[in-house]
Write a structure and sequence with these properties.
There is one protein chain. With 471 residues, this protein is α/β, with parallel strands linked by helices. The protein has two domains: 268 residues, Aldehyde Dehydrogenase, Chain A, domain 1; 188 residues, Aldehyde Dehydrogenase, Chain A, domain 2. The chain is built from 15 helices and 21 strands. The strands form five sheets. The chain has a seven-stranded mixed sheet with strand order 15-16-17-14-13-18-19, sandwiched between helices. Strands 10-9-8-11-12-20 form a six-stranded mixed sheet, with helices on both faces. The chain has a three-stranded mixed sheet with strand order 1-5-4, with no helix packed on it. Helix 2 packs antiparallel against helix 4, helix 3 crosses helix 4 and helix 9 crosses helix 10. It is globular, with a radius of gyration of 22 Å. The chain binds nicotinamide-adenine-dinucleotide (NAD). Nicotinamide-adenine-dinucleotide binds next to helix 7 and helix 8.
Amino acid sequence: MNDLSRNYINGQWVDWSGDTLDVHEAGTGEVIARVPSSGREEMEQAIAAADRAFDSWSESTLEQRIKVLEQLHAGLKERSGEIAETICREVGMPIKLATAIQAGMPATMTKSYLKLLPDFPFTEQSGNSEVQYAPVGVVGCITPWNYPLHQVILKIVPAIAAGCTVVLKPSEIAPQSAYILAEILDGTDLPKGVFNLVCGLGQTVGDTLIKHPDVRMVSFTGSTRTGSLIAHAAADDFKRIALEMGGKSASVVLPDADLGAAVKGTVNNCLLNSGQTCTALTRLLVPADQHDEACELAAAAVAKMTPGNPLEETTRLGPLASEQQRDRVFDYIRLGIEEGATLVAGGPEAPDGCDQGYFVKATVFGNVKPDSRIAQEEIFGPVLSIIPYQDEADAIRIANGTEYGLSGAVWSADQDKAKKVASKLRTGQVTVNGGAFNPQAPFGGFGHSGIGREFGKWGLEEFLEVRSLQL
Ligand code: NAD
């Protein structure tokens, strides 16, 4: 059992002797770690430390910031095996994928900022004005459990690069990688107080962070429900917010597309991390006359997703991160059946031989009505809804017919036609014919999926205020 009864405040580990929160292993349900259920006082101490550190860090040189990020990058590489196993156990992502994604992405994203920073224009000329980009101030970072370290890195790396100081409140469900991160940063040249970590519940320490007057920005990834609370709290003293929230993304298969490739690509995307991915393509839109074939192809594709112990190399489908999340997904599968959708594969139970832990069968529904709840609400589990459409206009209307707008896909034999449809989707990113993930491309959502962008220069600009000097 990993005892992590401490917070990292003002460059020091501060022991915690109050209530703790249990962290469970997704594949077995066993308690594997304990973290503090910190109080508002600890959060206030961390905010005060970040506030004290701001004046000096905001004036640090670019070389100083780059050096710290290089040290961070080296630490992430060095501890990648430990990061992968920790997140595999907490979240349930199979180890092979966790190594590439949960441990690999944080290093990749840090590296992408190291490449970008030397040429980033922190000052530029516009006519007779010098435009300066200044750090926002103390930033509160609040993150979820599904990609726990990646989501933290996307906030703290650009924030530190911008000259901001940060207080991180990680997810209480998957907090251990944030401790590894704090240990790595503790070994760098980052001055004390620039990075602080306080663990605890959203309604206590999270609430203090989003409402504190000395916090000038909240960068949040998580549910739309919590994002809305943050937006309301920020309105009171005009804090800046960056919100990355839920999704219900559509994969639109045009009539001339390679149906087999489109269904396979969509199923793989939908089931990544057992569906616990905000960008998951959870709605597969197919021409009505190809619906039955698409259902058969999807059933065959999910049959190949071997469920099992996420620590085993051959496992392709792991469990969900928590009991609560598993039960929520079971409820949605039952709801889909009640709503009259056709159950093509899976169902509201664990796969054979997976009685312990938080497993759910990979599930496919056919003949899903676009306005049914399973087609409208984020399920966050391994559940795909196949929706037949009549023509292109109908497909675009269905794709845009939810309150979300995070991701999407278009498949067609004609790339220009696919791009034309993609540009009509009200969503922050669209994959055309399975185009590769790009860590330099802006990431974020339309509508209820978010405000602001992460990745690359767009992610850095979120943490910068603009000042113009008329000369
Ligand atoms: P959540 O909103 O319940 O929790 C996220 C974080 O917010 C946690 O750290 C939690 O403790 C904190 N929090 C909860 N209540 C709070 C409050 N009242 N005040 C301050 N902080 C509070 O979300 P979750 O269940 O951990 O994560 C799943 C959700 O995250 C899904 O909806 C998913 O789509 C979304 N997500 C979005 C993205 C994206 O980039 N758009 C990425 C990953 C996950």
